[in-house]
Amino acid sequence: MNLIQRMEHWGDTHHPKWLDIVRMVLGILLFMKAVEFMNNMDYLSTLIGKSQFLSSISIGVMAHYVIMTQLIGGFMVAFGLLTRFASLIQIPNLLGALIFINPPSDILSPSGSWWLSLLILFLLVLFVVEGGGPWSCDRLLENHPMKTK
Fold first, then answer.
1. Is residue 148 part of a domain?
2. CA-to-CA distance for 107 and 115, rounded, in angstroms?
3. In a domain, 149, yes or no
4. Number of domains into which the chain is organized
5. pLDDT value at residue 101
């Protein structure tokens, strides 16, 4: 059994039910943030442009990538559908927010969004390891009577 299979097995056998509530809330928050970004596309483009790392065309592409991954990924995390994959595709968004968007001087600010981004990144990594849990679509599909073996 390789490392990924052992990690999946451990996550499936050691998943408390209360963690599913955290997963659902995280998915809803990510989905809501994507809707907020869709409604304020100029603000998102300004945030991404602050990094001065991308050209103007790349900023538009990156803004659409962030919105789509958070919209689709947030929905999938909330319902526990392909939770590990949905969490994994959102990690680059959070890494970008931590490194480029939220300035390092924001770390010591108690109201700064750096800590919130770090918490969400930690939860996404946790759900990459833990998976969907007992209250997820993943579990329903896994235990479905029509499942082919």
1. no
2. 7
3. no
4. 1
5. 75
What Cα–Cα distance (Å) separates residue 125 from each residue in 51, 70, 110?
24, 15, 23
Residue type, 71: L
Alpha-carbon distances, residue 98 vs 3, 43, 113 (angstroms): 28, 17, 9
SS (H, E, C) the chain: CCHHHHHHHHHHHCCCCHHHHHHHHHHHHHHHHHHHHHHCHHHHHHHHHCCCCCCHHHHHHHHHHHHHHHHHHHHHHHHCCCHHHHHHHHHHHHHHHHHHHCCHHHCCCCCCHHHHHHHHHHHHHHHHHHCCCCCCHHHHHHCCCCCCC
The encoded tokens of residue 100 equal 């480029």
Average pLDDT across each block of 10 residues of the chain; the chain has 149 residues. List them in order.
73 76 93 91 80 72 89 93 92 86 65 81 91 80 68
- Chain-centroid distance of CA 127 in Å reads 9
Full domain range(s) for residue 54: 3-142
Q: In this structure, is residue 14 part of a structural domain?
A: yes
